[in-house]
Amino acid sequence: MEDFKVLLVDDEEDFLRSLSERLELRDVKAGTASSGEQALAAVRSDEPPVIVLDLKMPGMNGLEVLRKLKKTNPKVQIVILTGHGSDKDREEAERLGAFAYLKKPVQMDVLMETLKRAHKKFKTVKHAVDTALMASALAQAGEVEMAREMMKKEQEEGEEDAKKRGK
Amino acid sequence: MRPSNGPRPIGGRWRRRPHLSNDSKSRLAAIGRRMLPFQAAGEEPGRYGVLRRNMTLLMILLTVVPLSLMAFINHREHRKALRAQTEAPMREILVRTRHSGEIFLAERRSAISFITSASTYEQLADQAELNRIFQVMKQEFGGFIDVGLIDASGVQVSYAGPFELVGKDYRDQEWFQEVLVRGTYVSDVFLGYRRYPHFVIAVRHLEPDGRSWIVRATVDTELFSGLIGSHGNVPGGDTFVVNRQGVLQTSSRHYGAVLERVPLDLKDAGLEPLITETVDRSGRPAFLGMAAFETVPFVLLYVEPRGTAWEPWYTLNNELFLVFIASIVVVFLVAYRLASSSVSRIEKSEENQRRALHEMEHGNKLASIGRLAAGVAHEINNPLAIIDQKAGLMMDLTENIPGFHLGPRFGELASSILNAVDRCRTITHRLLGFARRMDVEIRDIDVNDVLQEVLGFLEREALHRGVQIQLELDAELPAIASDRGQLQQVFLNILNNALEAMPEGGKVVIRSWRPDEEHVSVSIEDNGSGMSQETMKHLFEPFFTTKAPGYGTGLGLSITYGIIKKLGGEIQVDSELGKGTTFFVTLPMRASPEMGA
User: Are B549 and B533 in contact (CB under 8 A)?
Assistant: First the structure.
């Protein structure tokens, strides 16, 4: 399995320690942050592909963090994992663009499966963005035909992907 | 297909006694009944009994009192009028009779007075002359028995009559003294020497030269009796004269002969005729009239029986009384019926109100329990997550350390913890679901379709358990506007319970029908183990379960209840231990999410 990085954000240190250790055992590189502010700082220094985010935290709460990250780091996939989730929070999180909404305590295989999907989505999004960036760079350099072809290919790949997921 | 009035929901027994206090009250009452076996039959009348009684009494009072008053006044006035009508002729008879009596006496007195004054002493002393005068008196006046001359010393000088009384000395007799003082004297009736009733009239004459003499005559009472008795000829009427001591002076028809004593009270007798009520000799009611004579100390009495004149009045009275009694009976009946019907109406509406209140309370209780449960679930989830992670980590670690001899044992323990966490997770997640404000999605749906779908989920389970499922669905059932997903959950919960309560080879009957224009009903009947009253009472409360620990959260039916209420429907249950359970779900044609909130 291809290893990837995850940032865990939760105010329960104990929970963070165990979860990160378990993820490490499953070949996931897990960073931790015990508050919303720490999380934002960690993302600024090194953007992880996936963040596991608690909602109810002292200081900046999860929804706030989610809102900010979606502006600054739109590619990052955010999985909400909370024990306090009400339906209102769930709707709000989904509206803000959270990748998934899980309730504590979560079964490890469910979490792992969600993280993998989130990682895959991150890669897809990153690829699309990178392609677009490269295309625009090529276009700026005068290679317009090449850029157009690149975008077209990317679009087809995306559609195929969507088809697969639809099944 | 069942007729629409068939399986009506049985009036929710669990809802009638939702309060512990009521319950303990009834338990106390039961203990009381056991201790006092004789009181068991005489249940206290209760609040409605008292109300019914008071209303009846008030109505009776309001009608009977004026009715009685009217009857009483009418009775009295009528009687007064009748009495006046009776009294007038009686008065007249009394006055007339007395007048006749007075004239009779006055005539006799005048005759004696005339003889005394018109004749000289010598004439009167002459026996032959006196005899002649006596003959004239007898002829002209009648009733005279004898006449005699008495000198001033009280000695009989001459006498005309049937006895030999010359020389008799009256000096010491009371009447002689009185005639000397008063000039005239009329005696009471007495028997005297002559041995038959008579009375005496004596008149004194005073000559200018101071000589005086007295003429004394006796009068037969028979003539006087006849005169008095001839008045008052009413059938049963009786006229007679008594002296002040109540001794008869004339003969009477019913009160005895002359000189007998009459047992009547004469104290009030005066010149003015007085009419009183009394009873006659044979005990019948009668009117007694009395009037005193002016010139003699006699009282005239007139007794007239009441019967004849008053007969019509009594007949009328009796008839009116019957009408009165009949109307009172009618008033009683009507008052009782009215009070009963209005009290039972009040009772019914209060019962309804109470039931509605209970339902509301029950709903509120469920809602607040739900909120509390959700709060608890939220708080527990975090520590639970830590336990979960720690145990999971332990498990991961034991798997990753080769050759650790306690590895398998630790793994086993960690796995037990994880199982326990799983159980907790199920509870907390369902709790959150219970408290969740469910988004109701109203669409037109066919209840029969929903039932079929749900059965699709459960077919394998039923087959596995050997349970037979019988459908009696109304093919004509109209589509209703409700939430398909929620109804699925409702029927799934109920059917799950039914299947779990069922032994091998049981039977579940699912019916649907239309109780009225506005509703659709579904009943799910099983012949499983049934449940006790106690269980039914708590059936819809969260966390109430009869399953072994770890096999049920006790939330299924409370969620079901919440959904049905939210959809504006009703859920009721009827169950008998050992016989089976029937759930009744009634849904409105148009559900509005606010209805049951």
Answer: no
- The string of pLDDT tens digits covering residues A52-64 is 999 888 888 888 8
Of the candidates B359, B381, B377, the one whose C-alpha atom is nearest the C-alpha of residue B369 is B377
Q: Hey, what CATH class is B119-224 in? A: alpha beta
Instruction: Test B385 with A14 for CB contact under 8 angstroms.
Output: no
- The reply to whether A87 touches chain B by the CB within 8 Å rule is yes
pLDDT at B549: 61
How is domain B232-305 classified at the architecture level of CATH? 2-Layer Sandwich (3.30)
* pLDDT reported for residue B37: 40
> Among candidates B97, B105, B87, which has minimal Cα distance to B240?
B97
- Tell me the domain boundaries of chain B: 119-224, 232-305, 438-588
* Rounded distance between C-alpha atoms, residue B215 and residue B120, angstroms: 11
What sign does the dihedral B77-B81-B86-B87 (CA atoms) show? positive
Interface ipTM > 0.85: no
pLDDT in tens, B554-592: 777 888 888 888 888 889 888 888 888 899 999 998 876
Chain B CB contacts of A87 below 8 Å: 436-437
Asked if A15 and B393 come within 8 Å (Cβ–Cβ), the reply is no
CA distance B484 to B486: 6
Per cent of chain B over pLDDT 90 is 6
Determine if residue B494 is left, alpha or beta; phi over 0 gives left, psi from -120 to 50 gives alpha, anything else beta: alpha
Residue corresponding to tokens 């940032």: A7
Tokens 């030999």 sit on residue: B164
